[in-house]
Amino acid sequence: MAGLILVKGPIDQVPEIAAARDIPIAVQTLQLKPDPSQAGLYSLEYVAYQTPQNGGYTPRTPNIFVLVNGQLVNFLSGLQRGSRVAGIAPSPPPVTMMQREKSCACGF
């Protein structure tokens, strides 16, 4: 489950901020382990009454999926003690600026 919380306040009355559009970005991480029943799938299911080495519960998983707005942007694997971390190159979803957003009085 994931969600966004947008907090509005007095700062929203500043003209430059009031003129800007909101771009909601939700960043979420999923800690999953390889599914024992099907190769190539990942899940949160654990084998009851077993040690972590045999598919039982562990507070840490060897894989982390990073999602932005529900889209996979990075996958980290090998997060066990003493192993090298491998991942895919991050590629967040593009955000396109509108024409009026490209120039501002802030000097950038």
Account of the protein in words:
This protein is mainly beta and 108 residues long. Helix content is 5%, strand content 23%. The protein has one helix at residues 15-19; strands at 27-34, 42-43, 63-68, 71-77, 86-87. It has a five-stranded antiparallel beta sheet with strand order 2-1-3-4-5, with no helix packed on it. The longest helix has 5 residues, at 15-19.
Task: Tell me the layout of helices and strands.
Blueprint (H helix, E strand, L loop, with lengths): L14 H5 L7 E8 L7 E2 L19 E6 L2 E7 L8 E2 L21
Antiparallel strand pairs: 1-2, 1-3, 3-4, 4-5
How would you concisely characterize the structure shown here?
With 108 residues, this protein is mainly β. It has one helix spanning 15-19; strands spanning 27-34, 42-43, 63-68, 71-77, 86-87.
